[in-house]
Design goal:
mainly alpha; 258 residues
């Protein structure tokens, strides 16, 4: 990180000492990028603003807009990030990978704000081939999560299954598998849901979602009249310390199984 910060300072010094040089805009943008690489997102974004104020019509301006959006997104300033991404998309930049990533980020901004229809619309704008393998894969998770939240459970299952079938799905794998199982339950596909939840227990034994999975599996067993299995899973949830919002429901489930 120190080498990037040092590079940023050198580029910034050159840009200010040689402001009339043809290389000054590139040096200042390079300083913005180096600060971003150093994880100094606040400083990078401030310098992006300086770049855009001085060189807003220059050929590197679209890249500065995109980089500013990335800084703000990583700082969780989502509305401000969205503003920059939209400016970038209006700039006419032809870099297909950046265009795809901007739409992907806008989809997440909408998802965080629970605007699922808007998120899905942004996903439709993405050229998956240009986005690259990681984003093309994670798009499936995001689509599945949005379909799930809007009650489109069959579509959610299809998208989440596609994500889980991908070679690399570790980032959202546990949440995707839980959502897949619950979506299957919502479609009254209890055996399939139970199989997905049991798969979760094997694949993600350390997940923070484990209590929810155990509870959902207990519910699944109960609905299939496997009361002994249901009681055992309810007991795992009820016996956790400290108690949480699932505890009273688990205790009630144990009573129903008695």
């Amino acid at each position: 990180q120190n080498k990037f910060a040092a590079a940023a300072e050198a580029f910034r010094r050159y840009a200010r000492d040689s402001a009339k040089s043809e290389q000054a805009p590139r040096a200042l943008y390079s300083a913005c990028a180096a600060l971003h690489r150093a994880d100094q997102y606040v400083e990078s974004d401030e310098l992006c603003g300086e770049f855009l104020g001085s060189y807003g019509k220059q050929e590197l301006a679209p890249q500065a807009l995109f980089l500013s959006g990335e800084n703000r997104f990583l700082l969780k300033r989502y509305d401000q990030a969205a503003e920059r991404y939209r400016e970038f998309l209006q700039s006419g930049d032809k870099a297909a990978d950046r265009v795809a990533r901007a739409h992907y980020r806008l989809a997440w901004v909408a998802r965080y704000a629970k605007r699922n229809a808007e998120a899905l619309a942004e996903l439709q704008q993405i050229d998956a081939a240009a986005a690259g393998e990681v984003i093309a894969t994670e798009m499936k998770y995001l689509e599945g999560a949005c379909r799930f939240e809007t009650g489109k459970y069959a579509d959610a299952v299809q998208a989440l299954r596609a994500y889980l079938d991908a070679r690399e799905h570790s980032r959202f794998g546990d949440d995707a598998l839980l959502k897949l199982a619950v979506a299957e339950m919502k479609q009254d596909r209890k055996p399939q849901a139970a199989a997905s939840l049991e798969q979760f227990l094997k694949a993600y034994p350390q997940s923070e979602l484990l209590p929810q999975v155990q509870y959902q599996l207990a519910e699944c067993y109960y609905d299939q009249k496997a009361y002994a299995d249901a009681a055992a899973k309810y007991a795992l949830v009820a016996g956790r310390e400290p108690a949480d919002e699932l505890t009273p429901f688990a205790l009630f489930g144990i009573g129903l199984c008695a």
